[in-house]
Each structure stands twice: as C-alpha cells, then as structure tokens.
Specification:
CATH topology: Rossmann fold
Oligomer: single chain
Low-confidence stretches: none
CATH superfamily: NAD(P)-binding Rossmann-like Domain
Largest sheet: 7 strands, parallel
CATH architecture: 3-Layer(aba) Sandwich
Strand order of the largest sheet: 3-2-1-4-5-6-9
Radius of gyration: 18 Å
Length: 253
C-alpha cells in the first residue's frame, strides 16, 4: 500500500523540498500552505508526475478551526497517515537578548503553540498499530548562539522538549517522534540568498568564520535527512532524538 505523508508549510523552501523528496520515492503527499494558488500549482505538478499521488489543503495552522478542517479532509480522503512533518515557524524578531512582550508572545505562538495545536489534532490520523512517524523541523538556535531573535530560540527549545515527551507518550503506539534542527540553510527566497546578493564578500566571510564545513547547507540535505529518519528498518527505535544538521556550527567553540 502506498504510504501517505503530510508536510505542513510545504509550498516553498524546506517544506516543499521535503514533500518533493518523499513523492519521488513513491509516497503520496499532502501539500499545505496559506496560499491557495501555490497549493494548487504544486499539487497539480506532483499529480502530473504520478496520477492521484497528491492532494492539497489550504489551511492557516494558526487557526484551530482550519486545523480541524484539515484533519477532516485528510480523514475523508486518505483515512490515515504514515508520517507527518511539522514545518511551522518564523525567525522574524529583534536580534539579541532584548525583545518586547508582544514579540515574545507572538513568537511563542507561531513557533511553539501553533505546532502543539496542530500536533494534538493531526497525530490522531497516524496509522494505528503500525510504525509511523512525526518529525518536527526545529532550529539549532534552540541551543546555539547564531544571533537569532531570543524569542525564536527559546520557542524552538520548547519544541525540542515537547517532542521528547511525546516520543515517550507515543512509543507504545509504534510512533516515533524526532526533531531535525537545521543550521544555516540556503533557500532561493530566504535570508541567505538576500545576504549573498547584497554582499558576496560578507557572505563568504561569515561562512568561513562560523561554519566549520565552510559552506551553507541546502534544502535537499534537510529533505534527505528527514526521509532517512522515516526508514522502515529503523522502525520506532529511533525516537526522542534531536538531530542538528548544521555543518558543525553547533559544535564550534
């Protein structure tokens, strides 16, 4: 039977590449985002490669009503899922140790509470009695000083801790729960693309001084790692783990 995957926030960047990776390996994929045109465009593209292999659901996961609607649509069309990748969050905010209460609450909601609300509803769609998996996309900012907004950093730390507790809670149901924490990853419409365009010299200097691997990571590498974590040979024995994919940045002293 064809395996089924939901990737939240999968109309661009890391989420999109993860969805494309699984689809290329024969999985059926649910595309999710807030822009209906993008959701339709990507879903249609995947279905042209393989008929009836993708569905698209426009949903804003900051709204509980839309999370509930997504759950109903998935249950109606697919019944159950083999894997969910929660790719939700935003690194916007004031850098450094200062942040306003408004910013703190906003970041906590976007990077943690919205993820929890989505998880609490959607993980019930995972196959019962068979090995399935949940993967959260975190960030090395959770325990590494990469000059990210502090509100973003502690929100991602909370997400990592939440995943560990859920790994214990769901272990008897044969559900593995893990976190992938990307480091500096290049996306075409992301911050590193803009920095490279603005000043190639400063971009290269940053890489040389801050990333032991001496290069920025790629969305393809994130997708490859996410896919490998769902390997059937691992079953649910790899669970409760936070994996940093950062070229050694988090180890740099």
């Amino acid at each position: 039977m064809t395996k089924k995957l939901l990737v939240t926030g999968s109309t661009r960047g890391i989420g999109l590449v993860i969805a494309e990776k699984f689809h290329s390996q024969g999985w059926n994929v649910c595309i999710n985002g807030r822009n209906q045109d993008l959701v339709t465009q990507i879903t249609d593209g995947l279905n042209k490669k393989r008929r009836e292999s993708s569905i698209g659901i426009r949903a804003d996961l900051s709204r509980v009503s839309e999370i509930n609607l997504m759950s109903e649509v998935l249950k109606s069309q697919w019944g159950a899922l083999d894997c969910i990748v929660f790719n939700i969050g935003s690194g916007h905010g004031t850098k450094g140790i200062s942040s306003t209460m408004e910013e703190n609450l906003s970041s906590l909601k976007t990077n943690f509470l919205d993820v929890i609300n989505s998880f609490n509803k959607l993980h019930k769609l995972l196959l019962q009695g068979k090995t399935s998996s949940v993967i959260f996309i975190g960030s090395i900012a959770q325990d590494t000083n990469v000059k990210a907004p502090i509100s973003y950093a502690y929100s991602k730390k909370a997400l990592n801790n939440f995943a560990r507790y859920q790994a214990i809670a769901l272990s008897r149901e044969k559900v593995s729960v893990n976190v992938i924490n990307p480091g500096h990853i290049f996306t075409e419409d992301g911050v590193w693309a803009r920095k490279k365009q603005n000043s190639l010299e400063e971009f290269n200097q940053f890489v040389a001084e801050n990333i032991p691997a001496q290069r920025i990571g790629s969305t393809t590498e994130v997708a490859e790692l996410v896919f490998s974590v769902t390997n059937d040979l691992l079953g649910n024995f790899l669970s409760g783990v936070s994996i940093n994919l950062d070229g050694g940045t988090s180890l740099k002293v």
